[in-house]
Amino acid sequence: MSASSQPEPRSMKWESSGELAQRDLSELVTRLLDVESSNNSDELTRLSSKYDGES
Questions:
Q1: What is the pLDDT of residues 13-35, one digit of tens each?
Q2: Torsion-angle region of residue 18: left (phi > 0), alpha (psi -120 to 50) or beta?
Q3: Cα–Cα distance between 53 and 51 in angstroms, integer?
Q4: How far apart are CA 39 and CA 33, in angstroms?
Q5: C-beta of residue 34 within 8 angstroms of C-beta of residue 42
Q6: Phi-psi region for residue 30, left (φ > 0), alpha (ψ -120 to 50) or beta?
Q7: In angstroms, rounded to a whole number, what is the distance separating the alpha carbons of residues 19 and 39?
Q8: How many CA atoms lie within 13 A of 52 on its CB side?
Q9: How far apart are CA 2 and CA 5, in angstroms?
Q10: Is the pLDDT of residue 1 over 60?
Q11: Residue 43: CA count within 13 A, CB half-sphere
């Protein structure tokens, strides 16, 4: 994969609360799920679902 196809963390949108924007958080979790162990994947899924209900 080329470096240009992967966004730099600095280019992610951060909310005034210090949290990642929902879209960037979802993208990050999706990428991490592809490479993490099943134990970590379960925790990532749990954490991401915590924010899915908030708006």
A1: 888 998 888 888 888 888 888 88
A2: left
A3: 5
A4: 10
A5: no
A6: alpha
A7: 24
A8: 9
A9: 6
A10: no
A11: 5
